[in-house]
Amino acid sequence: MCGIVGYIGSDYAKEKVIDGLRRLEYRGYDSAGIAMPVSGAIQITKAVGELKNLEAKISDPAFDAPVAIGHTRWATHGKPTELNAHPHGNMDNSIAIVHNGIIENYQELREWLAEEYGIKFKSETDSEVIAHLIGLYYDGDLLDAVNKAVEEMRGAYAVAAMAAAEPDKIVAVRKDAPLVVGAGNGFNMIASDVPALLKYTRDVYFIENNETVVLTKDSVVIYDENGNEVQRDIQAVEWKADAADKAEYDHFMLKEIHEQPKVIQETLLNRLNPDDSIKLDDISMTKEDIDNFNKIYIIACGTAYHAGLVGKMVIEKMTKIPVEIDVASEFRYRDTFIDDKTLFIAISQSGETLDTLAALRDAKDRGARILSVVNAVGSSIARESHDVFYTLAGPEVAVASTKAYTTQLICMYLIGLYMGSTKGTIDKEYYDFMLKELKDLPGKVDRILLSEEKYKKLAERYHFNDHVFFIGRGLDSGVSYEGSLKLKEISYIHSFAIAAGELKHGTIALMDKDSLVVALATQDRLYEKMVSNIVEVQARGAHIIGLAKEGKTEIEKTSDEVIYIPQCADEVAPVLAVIPLQIFAYYVALEKGCNIDKPKNLAKSVTVE
Ligand code: AGP
Description:
Blueprint: E1 3-9, H1 14-22, E2 31-38, E3 41-48, H2 51-57, E4 67-73, E5 88-89, E6 95-103, H3 106-117, H4 128-137, H5 142-152, E7 155-163, E8 166-175, E9 180-183, E10 187-191, E11 203-206, E12 211-215, E13 220-223, E14 229-230, E15 235-236, H6 252-258, H7 260-269, H8 287-292, E16 295-300, H9 302-319, E17 323-327, H10 328-331, E18 342-348, H11 354-365, E19 369-374, H12 380-383, E20 387-390, H13 403-423, H14 428-439, H15 441-449, H16 452-462, E21 467-472, H17 475-491, E22 494-499, E23 516-521, H18 527-539, E24 543-549, E25 561-565, H19 573-591
Parallel strand pairs: 16-17, 16-18, 18-19, 19-20, 21-22, 21-23, 23-24, 24-25
Antiparallel strand pairs: 1-4, 1-10, 2-3, 2-4, 5-6, 6-7, 7-8, 8-12, 9-10, 9-11, 11-15, 12-13, 13-14
The protein binds 2-deoxy-2-amino glucitol-6-phosphate.
């Protein structure tokens, strides 16, 4: 999605805003721009393509100011052109704004502004109406004009605005799109996400929905939707400044794959008390609450949904409560059975995915208890939940999610263990057994990472395949979906996943000598059936990459290649099985020369419906 960065302080703003936008590149964009008050008027400069094209236009050192707002645009309404890029100004550029989100009623606003006030629009965008609305209501008080403008707007928006007549402030407002303020000494910043701020400050204010904030170089004042000043504590972001750097890796994705042993360990150990009981700070769910639940919904999108596929099976097994799972965009339009006996688990790395947030709000309105599994501290989904289970994956910059997925799985196991031990549906022996399995995972992931070269060679051998199938049964089925998505979204190869038992009901008609099949067979009790499925597809000429636990060597007889993962309990095998698939996808994309961290058409956080 779009990225917003603003700076106001006693130093020059241009370089800091551009640097901040660079740290938000992972969100995906196709154009960029910056607005600064220079010689009494707001200068708006924009460029299509990468940030370096904008930098080339504003390289004159004299072209700078102590306040600026910048933007990277991921086109929704209007092609990626210079005119459609942000910032947008009103007709005389006395007002400039940057916007992330969608103004749903922009067409009627455009018509009204044009007919009633003779406004001439420069772009095709929805966002431009915001600049004209603020300009229309501006009478020397930018905060007042912004508040009046948002009363006319429907949709999702994070907006930062400046006025030529008030160059000593930035006013920002948000509804259903993220905004965070960075508080500094002699300066303040505003951004769509924390990584844009880390180089300058780790002290942040998270702006809540329908709040407005006024930044000067020495103050941050937050107002609620009724105009009352809000007292908000500063939060110190724990991420190290270089956490959002690639370090010695060629891509964020490879760095984040290699961070998994560490972040799995941190996510797990941060949740355990010295006696190995599960620590639930941020979670106020009581035994009574847990005994009250008669159904659980897991709702998410993309990779987070795939983590939920595993979560459904392990939580059902541990709690004996029926668990439904659905993608958020479908859940919202179903007639579901939600009430105060429902536990609604939302999984989201960014905590800003609008489909998931909207589903959460629907379930909350209907009485469900909301537990979210989120990576981004203070994000919208986290703040609107009753309880939050944070994955401690640190900033995940690559669009293709890896370490967020495996830490989401850890949270699924912990939620199942906590609820099951509280309800008495699992005994201490099983609890202790599972906890040991979880504690052994970081070391086993490390061992798998040592075979990176093997998976790289597989990618070199098979990167030309145009049709790749991922198959599995039980928990392997959920991992198959994740492996397939990884390959699709960064290498653009047509790949899909299917429950292996389903093959004979139609899909096997596609199998031929050009098919590559990645067959996951980590579940002991389903191993024989999986080997039979492999024989079926091999008989049609497909190439097989089998994946099994060490020692399960029968699979070699029916596979062209075999990937082994360390021995482990069936329940935790997904955490290990996904790692080779992540690395395979990475190297296939590398072979194909794809833009691995910023795949085409994709954004890191999908804050539109
Ligand atoms: C995963 O690799 C994708 N980038 C995408 O499917 C992502 O998982 C999905 O958009 C959900 O995002 P969230 O976890 O931030 O809600």
